Amino acid sequence: MPPIESSTTVLIIWAVVGYLMGSIPYGILLTRVMGLGNLRDIGSGNIGATNVLRTGSKKAAALTLLLDAAKGAVAILLARMIAAEDAVQVAALFAMLGHCYPVWLRFQGGKGVATFLGIMLALAWPVGIGCCILWLLAAAITRVSSMGGLAAASGSTILLVVLGYGYALLLGIALTIILYVRHRSNIIRIKAGTEPKIGQKG
């Protein structure tokens, strides 16, 4: 298990850094810069890649996916370069919170799937790859993006333990809970059979 030795001040600093990095709304910024309209008025109004795809721009959706994943990964990589493992995990948790509850958007952010995957890839790349595979399989089979995210989150804690990263289990559980909370409405629609398919407008 990596050493845990950060002071409270250091942990607070990385919480702030993680939150600020996670709170950058790339989906909204990209759609505005690319002249695709106000993302809040399109589809579900969500700021993530799935809703950006509903603008009709695969390029914008792909960039949003990559940047939302990168902000979670970069927060971890920066913390890991100069801080202990506890600070790394704090940065990861707050990057996820920043994406899902950004102060700039009145705490109404994204669902967190891309950021979650980026965090897992940077935190423990074998676990991250496993989560990406689960995401791709579930999304491909069901054609429902949210199913991919829920499957990845559900499998992440098992992968953390099985692949030898049990020291990050509490973080994995916390991230999974956040992702499930953000997908409450999706889960209801999935049960009702009304959840939109990938690429479906509206």
TrEMBL record:
Keywords: Acyltransferase, Cell membrane, Lipid biosynthesis, Lipid metabolism, Membrane, Phospholipid biosynthesis, Phospholipid metabolism, Transferase, Transmembrane, Transmembrane helix
Swiss-Prot/TrEMBL GO biological process terms: phospholipid biosynthetic process
Subcellular localization: Cell membrane
GO molecular function: acyl-phosphate glycerol-3-phosphate acyltransferase activity
InterPro entries, per the entry: G3P_acylTferase_PlsY
Pfam assignment, any one: G3P_acyltransf
Segments crossing the lipid bilayer: 12-30, 60-81, 87-104, 116-138, 158-181
Gene Ontology cellular component list: plasma membrane
Family statement: Belongs to the PlsY family.
Subunit structure and binding partners: Probably interacts with PlsX.
Protein name: Glycerol-3-phosphate acyltransferase
Organism: Sulfitobacter sediminilitoris
